[in-house]
Amino acid sequence: xxxxxxxxxxxxxxxxxxxxxxxxxxxxxxxxxxxxxxxxxxxxxxxxxxxxxxxxxxxxxxxxxxxxxxxxxxxxxxxxxxxxxxxxxxxxxxxxxxxxxxxxxxxxxxxxxxxxxxxxxxxxxxxxxxxxxxxxxxxxxxxxxxxxxxxxxxxxxxxxxxxxxxxxx
Length: 169
What we know:
Order of helices and strands: HHHHHHHHH
Mean pLDDT: 88
Radius of gyration: 17 Å
Strand content: under 5%
């Protein structure tokens, strides 16, 4: 169960009282739990969706759902998207791109990518019909965590060392 809790604390902001802080190598070893954690995120999202639907119109519920996803995950994926967008979309050489990706400041490409992705998430959730909402809200976060694993397994890591190197190996 330690690996499950390592994955849970890495992929979410669930406050757990733990006696130890997981090292990145522990989290990398816990990748088998990423999809089940995605299912838990989906179930939590469904709870938010159903609760908000009691008092809000559907478009507002979709906004709250997107905010809930950001809160549940601590915006981990959005941070990665911002860094990647700034680094890859500029016309720079490899070393400059990698330096930009390590920079904590967000540039124009990062902002445009974040706004676009959040808008697409809202539009996607808004478009899901009521009879498919359960499946869509629960399974999409699990599929997204599976996609993370597929990308890690498929593409080479850009640096020789760094946070992602342990996941890739």
